[in-house]
Design brief:
Elements (H helix, E strand, L loop, with lengths): L1 H5 L6 H44 L15 E11 L2 E9 L4 H17 L3 E7 L2 H19 L2
Antiparallel strand pairs: 1-2, 1-3
């Protein structure tokens, strides 16, 4: 009886185990890819919400003042130290093309994760303003998650 259970033929328990052993690493890789995709989408959505909040607060120049500067996407690479403090390592203007931006974000995120850091997409008028905006968003997030 044991030989029948362990025999390798279509529909057997032995064949089902062999197939599942093959599918395990494939499913794990696919799940990791989907998780990374969802994390990138969440980061982009958070950044867009922050941008929309900043615009809705009325950052419009007074009549007769200089022309407003255009907000552009920036990658802010650094490490969140907790309590709303951020150690900014690098600020770089993100590509305008969404596909190129996603690729560049993925590369920066991969590099930052090896050093326990992260990458945020921040919309600002200059690199310094982007770093300041990232610090402000970190403080706001810290305040929201404190009990």
């Amino acid at each position: 009886m044991l030989l029948l259970v362990l025999a390798d033929y279509p529909g057997s328990l032995s064949r089902a185990v062999a197939v599942e052993q093959w599918r395990g690493p494939y499913c794990r890789t696919a799940a990791a890819r989907e998780h990374e995709y969802a994390r990138r989408a969440q980061t982009e959505a958070d950044s867009l919400r922050a941008q929309a909040r900043a615009r809705s607060r009325g950052r419009r120049p007074a009549p007769g003042s200089a022309a407003p500067q255009v907000e552009r996407p920036y990658f802010v690479v650094g490490q969140w130290k907790g309590g709303g403090e951020v150690d900014v390592w690098h600020v770089e203007e993100a590509p305008a093309d969404p596909d190129a931006r996603a690729d560049a974000h993925e590369q920066h995120a991969s590099d930052a994760e090896t050093a326990f850091g992260s990458v945020n997409v921040v919309y600002a008028t200059s690199p310094q303003a982007a770093a300041d905006q990232a610090r402000c968003e970190a403080r706001q997030t810290s305040e929201r998650i404190r009990p």
